[in-house]
Amino acid sequence: MAEMVKLTIDGHEVEVPKGTTLLEAAKQVGTLVPHYCYHPGMSSPAMCRLCLVEVEGAPKPMPSCVTTVAEGQVVKTQSDNALGHRRGVLEFYLVNHPLDCPICDMSGECHLQDYVHEEGREHGRGREPKRVFGRDDFGGDVLFYGDRCVMCTRCVRFMNEVEQDSRLTVVERGSRSVIDTFFEEGLEGTNWHGNIVDICPVGALVSKDFLHKARAWDLEHTPSICPGCAQGCNIDLHTRDNLVQRLKPRENLDVNGWWMCDYGRLDYEWMNAGGRIEAPLVRRNGAPAAVAWKDALTELADAARSMGGSSVKAVASPHASNEDLGALATLIDAFGGGEIVYRGRMAEDEVPLRGYPSLARRRDLTPNARGAELFGATRVGSADATGGLDDVASHDGVVIVLGDALPDQSADFGRDAALYIYVGQRGTPAAERADFVLPVTTFAEQEGTFTNVDGRVQRFWPGLTAPGMARPAWLILGALAAELGRAVGPARTAADAFTAFTGAVAAFEGLTYEDIGTRGAVINETVSLTGDRV
Amino acid sequence: MAYPYVSDREVRILSKYFGDPKQRRIDTYVKRGGYGGLKKALGMAPGEVVDTVKASGLRGRGGAGFPTGVKWSFMPKDTGRPHYLICNADESEPGTFKDRELIRWDPHQLIEGCLIGAHAIGAQHVYIYCRGEFFETTQVLAKALEDAYAKGYVGEDILGSGIKIDITVHLGAGAYICGEETGLMNSLEGRRGQPRVKPPFPAAVGAFGMPSTINNVETLSIIPHIVTNGGDWYRQWGTEKSPGTKLFCVSGHVNKPGNYELPLGFPLIDLIEDVCGGMRGGKALKAVIPGGSSVPIINAEEARACSLDYEGCVAVGTMLGCASVIVMDETTEIVKQVRRMVDFYAHESCGQCTPCREGSAWTAKMMRRIEEGRGTEDDLDTLMEVTQQMVGTTICVLSDSVAAPVQSSINKFRDEYLALIRRGERVGAA
């Protein structure tokens, strides 16, 4: 237990560990002192001078980001003195700021806008011509608008201290200071530079991918998990018009801190792609026919019952949620047992973020391989997620495909199957022989959980509305299993679907959706893995 | 007469050999009693040396006037880590030219002072950080250092005492801000010359992360004399709170500008009228900046009442700073002079703190607009407020240095600003 220090902030007594900064301590009483250069994930140069507060007995206003608490200290963040100093500093920020908010991507989530509205002067006094730096391409996904920069150097420090690949620096001095790259070498080839756009408090660093795409206030934010690798970075889906516009990291100190990699960040277009299966298809007279869900499930249950105890071979995608996979496992039980295999892409190497040791883009490029293994699935195929399905393709019992689009398989897939059920998002030649094609949602359209490489179960929420009649796989497969008598009743919610297997799979025992919350919870480490843990 | 100008009212201790090139030779220096202070100091415990300097009441000559002995006593003891003494020879304050002369004419005096200082604070290494433009000065110093190494005054086992002290001369790259102690340390380490946030103070975490003390050239140059003659000897000059002698760099509209070593507490008007031979061309005195461009400007009346010691300057609303006396006669355009100073600070701001980075450049633009006759009376209020927003809100005091000349000149020479604003008239223009 750290030594505690008692002090008074804005009239409230607080007790915080020794060494806490005033800025962090003020959060305890619900006050966020405005700041630019301070970021909890990096060093504090105390140079933006915006976080000045009044400390009784101190001759000057103190920068709250580096001033640590002292016993009995009396701190005033909202006194006339403190506000006066901050109002003065804010005025300086506007002396050369172009105020091009109407065409600035940061508008609406800009800290300069926020703070000036909160604490700034009503009218500007600047009459002089403004300094002009213009625009620069920093390489990678980053554009630099020098005129908007507030010189907080967060971006420089991120590259130096967190990514630890010094690509940015401050050139010149005084009011001529400007952020720049080293000669022609920009951010190209670095793997985490998207984060400097996130931490830029103004619109100086913007994403080329997001440039002029949407206004911040039109975006809806949905907490989610990055599906790009087994790390499971916590993210927000930023959506508008039922399209994902961008991904942003969501703070979780146990997983990704404040960061996410550039691959994950920019790999979202597939969530918006069309060409989806929009209705359940049932093979009638040799041709697929679109039917209502009720009919599809009734016919499928009838077909299953008529099969007797037939063995199942299933291919599941490690992009499927724990709930989907749990429902699949239950359904296979209902059929009389079988096996599940999965395929997933593997990168050659990990891409670590040096300044945040627990964070890396993992070799396993799928979000839920760990979960799939906990449900008994076995990894097959090569590192590019192809091959390994010869047994399944020619199986003469029940074949179930969940989520794997089988891009490498021919129309012969399932040729000998007694019953072939294809559960997926998109049509594929390999689904041609399927007796039932059931449209399901992507992770972005449903609620659920993934289990990351460290066994952390993390929830995600639906940010998009599913097309047509697509439904979550856990709902459909769960309903089917219930129809076949394998569950008390169909799961109505993702939480029900989760609870359904917590008793059956030891690793998940005792976990609830409430416990997992937005931060995640770690499984019981009782299950050994069959595959590589990477 | 010797060295450009001398006066019989001077007390020449530091500047005794100014103008005598022989003093640079180590043999001459030793023959004249040089390195005697070092011999004496090496026979004393470090604490005794510190006590002697404390007793002398010597105050730092870099501008802040902090008692040197007290500063030395802040150094931790027995840390087992390297300690550093840094000599600040980055003399860049507009109006100041004393350190350059101290090094040029008497380099061994400084080297001896550095060695004694290093012994007092337990440092094995001294860095002398010279201003980037000091080419000749640095060459003189480097030659002297070479001689001192050859004679065994510097390096291993100094004079058989078993004490080892090395000295490195480092030439800066020409930035005013590197004269700020922690900016200097960053520059010395090869980083951007930007002042550091304090705390931690240099005595705890200084150069290369180690306990360090930094002293001005003039401060260290007087140390051999104080150690040789004792603290009380030094107190025979100056005032109770500002003891000793001080080099005054006089520039501007006087007949005999130059360096004069005078006891602290010397009347400013005597310095101008007597020591410097009066105003050039018999013109009337208009204003004085007594401590380098960072301190408030005073008018003729205040100058007549000003005594040149730390307290005497504060009493008339300014500061002694590094005693760089800039004298201006009735032909001086105050607005233009202040604008030039603000331009200097805007150019030299390191750019990390917002009030300084933006405020200095904004102030410079406003000053130029007023000087060009495009100002308004509201601008004066804006200038006062904007510069006030720059006081005490930054890491170092460069920002405060912009406020000093602007605010003091608006307070004392408002008429000149108004003449430009209302009628486009340049007051005093010759």
Written overview of the protein:
The complex is a heterodimer of chains A (534) and B (430). Chain A contains 14 helices and 26 strands. Chain A has 534 residues and is of the alpha+beta class. In chain A, α8 packs across α12. Chain A is elongated, with a radius of gyration of 27 Å. Chain A starts with a strand and ends in a 12-residue tail after the last strand. With 430 residues, chain B is of the alpha/beta class. Chain B has 3 domains: 21-234, NADH-ubiquinone oxidoreductase 51kDa subunit (Rossmann fold); 245-329, Roll (Ubiquitin-like (UB roll)); 334-423, de novo design (two linked rop proteins) (Up-down Bundle), CATH 1.20.1440. Chain B is built from 18 helices and 11 strands. Chain B has helices spanning 26-31, 36-42, 46-56, 68-73, 98-105, 107-121, 135-150, 181-188, 217-229, 231-234, 268-275, 300-305, 310-315, 334-348, 354-371, 377-388, 398-412, 414-423, and strands at residues 84-89, 125-130, 166-171, 212-216, 245-252, 258-263, 266-267, 285-289, 298-299, 307-308, 324-329. A 5-stranded mixed beta sheet of chain B has the order 6-5-11-8-9. The interface between A and B is medium-sized, with 37 and 31 residues.
What is the overall pLDDT average of chain B?
96
List the chains of the largest interface with their residue counts.
A-B, 37 and 31 residues
Overall 3D form of chain A: elongated
Counting copies of identical and different chains, the oligomeric state is heterodimer
Strand content of chain B: 5-15%
Strand order of the largest sheet of chain A: 15-14-23-22-21-16-17-20
User: What are the segments of chain A in which pLDDT stays under 50 over at least 5 consecutive residues?
Assistant: 526-534
Give the CA-CA distance, first to last residue of chain B.
33 Å
What's the number of structural domains of chain A?
Answer: 3
Shape, principal axes of CA atoms of chain B = globular
**Could you tell me the mean pLDDT of chain A?**
94
- What structural category characterises the helix and strand content of chain B? alpha/beta
Reported for the largest beta sheet of chain B, the result is:
5 strands, mixed
Structural class of chain A: alpha+beta
CA-atom Rg of chain A in angstroms: 27 Å
Give me the strand/helix succession of chain B. Answer: HHHHEHHEHEHEHHEEEHEEHEHEHHHHH
CATH class of the largest domain in chain A: Alpha Beta
